[in-house]
Amino acid sequence: MLRIAIPNKGTLSAPAAQMLRDAGYRQRTDPKDLVCRDEANSVEFFYLRPRDIATYVGSGDLDLGITGRDLLVDSGVPAVEVLDLSFGGATFRWAAPAGTLTSADQIGGRRIATAYPGVVERYLEENELKADVVRLDGAVENAVRLGVADVIADVVETGTTLRQAGLVTIGEPILRSSAILIGRGPAPESGPAAQLIRRLQGVLVARSFVMLAYDVRADLLENATALTPGIESPTVSPLHREGWVAVQAMVRRNDVHRIMDELYELGARAILVTDISNCRL
Ligand SMILES: Nc1ncnc2c1ncn2[C@@H]1O[C@H](COP(=O)(O)OP(=O)(O)OP(=O)(O)O)[C@@H](O)[C@H]1O
Ligand SMILES: O=P(O)(O)OC[C@H]1O[C@H](OP(=O)(O)OP(=O)(O)O)[C@H](O)[C@@H]1O
Ligand SMILES: [Mg+2]
Asked: CA–CA separation, 197 vs 39, rounded Å?
């Protein structure tokens, strides 16, 4: 049985379970359950603190896990990123009270509050800086006004928490994080782990592409398919109406409105968009 670690709580927990459900795996129904066996797919899911997941995967006690890139880096465990799951996106950044620090080189010699000391220490080492790292569990934005630190390093998603604490970001993000699938080594080519990865890739494609279908005059086909080249190549079928063809191609969800406008301008008609619920490319 394949053994997989999933966040039991926090920002990544619900979207990770949803992604696995979308990929056809059974998930716990009670949020207090710590284990869920999916006999049909020979997979057992273990619900763990996201911060602990790299430890279990790095030691080889679990085969794969879903966690955040920032948490993997922070752990210092030699597990590797197998697949970017494209949810739970956030940046990890320096922040300080407005008007105090203007660039990240000024971090040296300061007191830095963070719940991610591993990420901060790696940055300090790589940039040959020395500073005092104050390790906190959360609500790090309070550390400066309460006097325990001069600067913080924390997860920033919308920036609301920083603004409310009177802090501004300093310099470029230390890292860009998202939910990732981790393993002990590179992805296997076959077996249940390879199948899980392929299924998750299918969900990712289904989320980022839609199927576009339209009718167009045959003499405009080259121009139209230049807008919708598809993945391999678009499907072109004859229409009963002489001189017209029907085209079908996958397009990126983010581009679909622009492409539909351009196709319409070109003379395409009956332009239809359909969601893809899953796929194997
Ligand atoms: N708005 C956010 N707040 C916190 N973490 C976020 C956010 N958006 C994405 N993440 C990611 O979620 C992971 C942290 O999850 P974790 O469960 O440890 O903290 P949490 O969601 O803040 O929950 P809690 O604070 O209750 O422990 C990190 O990988 C982080 O980058
Ligand atoms: O940029 P934002 O959208 O405001 O989100 C980022 C904030 O959210 C998280 O805090 P959380 O509420 O999880 O509390 P915690 O600090 O106790 O973990 C994170 O640690 C930041 O403080
Ligand atoms: Mg938190």
From this structure: 18
The residue whose CB lies within 8 Å of the most ligand 1 atoms, and thus the one to mutate among 11, 81, 116, is 11
Query: 3-class DSSP state for residue 95?
Result: strand
Cα(35)–Cα(17) distance, rounded to whole angstroms? Answer: 13
Confirm whether the ipTM is greater than 0.90. yes
Q: What is the pLDDT of residues 220-267, one digit of tens each?
A: 999 999 999 999 999 999 999 999 999 999 999 999 999 999 999 999
What mean pLDDT is predicted for residues 26-45? 97
Residue type (1 letter), 118: G
Pocket lining for ligand 1, CB < 6 angstroms: 7, 9-12, 50-51, 68, 70-71, 88, 90, 138, 155, 157, 177
Write the single-letter amino acid at 90: A
Provide the token pair at 106: 């000024």
Give the angle 141-84-189 at the CA atoms, nearest 5°: 150
144, 113 contact by CB (below 8 A): yes
